[in-house]
Amino acid sequence: MAPRSYVGEARKRVGPKRARIRPIIERLALEHADAKIALRFRTPLELLVSVMLSAQTTDVNVNRVTEKLFEKYRRPEDYLRVPVAELERDIFTTGFFRQKAKALRGTMAMLLAEHGGEVPEDFDALLRLPGVARKTANVVSAERGNALGIVVDTHVRRLSQRLGLTKQEDPVKIERDLVKLVPREDWARFPHLLIWHGRRICDARRPRCEDCPLAADLCPASRA
Predict the structure, then answer these.
(1) Best CA proximity match to 199, nearest among 137, 152, 156, 163
(2) Does the structure show a pLDDT above 80 at 1?
(3) What would the 3-class secondary structure string for the chain be?
(4) What is the Cα 152 distance to its own chain's centre?
(5) By CB distance 3.0 to 4.6 Å, which of 22, 137, 164, 204 could disulfide with 126?
(6) Within 13 A of 69's CA, how many CA atoms are on the CB side?
């Protein structure tokens, strides 16, 4: 089933999006000064694994699983050394555990075969890893200090539509719209700001517009 669209909620006239983008970023940065990735990791490998496991589940759940997982699996070889069934049990509660275990093992094998066991920094090389799509590659690149795009998750999609920054539904097309608007130096933090705002204030069903720093003059979907 296609995800719900929020494009139709952006009805109010609030000015052109290019003129609004900097004020939006500035106000959200003040409101959510603590906005950052919620996944816990210590190394590029742990970052990659965490993001791969985060599909179709919560960051809280992933952190709960990886707290023990990263004590047991420290190197790519560790993911290949155990039986598949054992790895599946260890990540079972993240959901889709069979597909994720297969992707993890494929990725680890490729890291060893082509990258000396290290997570590549090259974006295209990341995309070639089994189970790594554009969103995962964007997250990994951004958290390593080299954002090459803008992460689009459910919160970023919803808020970008409500804020009138895009009329697209597909995450790849939404990203294309956002990279044209958001200053390059903000590509890494922009999705975090939207994600935290989406969690704390701009709820999918009941947005708290009365508490939103954007509602009065920057958000065309404001109900305030």
Answers:
(1) 156
(2) no
(3) CCCCCCHHHCCCCCCCHHHHHHHHHHHHHHHCCCCCCCCCCCCHHHHHHHHHHCCCCCHHHHHHHHHHHHHHCCCHHHHHHCCHHHHHHHCHHHCCHHHHHHHHHHHHHHHHHHCCCCCCCCHHHHHCCCCCCHHHHHHHHHHCCCCCCCCCCHHHHHHHHHCCCCCCCCHHHHHHHHHHHCCHHHCCHHHHHHHHHHHHCCCCCCCCHHHCCCCCCCCCCCCC
(4) 6
(5) 137
(6) 28
Instruction: For residue 56, give both structure tokens.
Output: 């179709």
CA dihedral of 183, 186, 192, 195, whole degrees rounded to 10: -10
Catalytic residue status for 68: no
**What are the two backbone dihedrals, phi and then psi, of residue 148, each rounded to the nearest 5 degrees?**
-110, 5
97-114 vs 44-53: helix axis angle to the nearest 10? Answer: 150
Fill in the amino acid letter for 184.
R
Q: Known catalytic residue: 153?
A: yes
Active-site residue, from 153, 170, 203, 217:
153
Dist CA 37 CA 27 (whole Å): 19
CA dist 221 and 218 (Å) reads 9
Two tokens, residue 68:
């023990």
Q: What is the pTM of this model?
A: 0.92
Quote the CA–CA distance of 111 and 107 in Å, as a whole number: 6
Q: Are 62 and 39 in contact (CB under 8 A)?
A: yes
Give per-residue pLDDT as tens, 104-152.
999 999 999 999 999 999 999 999 999 999 999 999 999 999 999 999 9
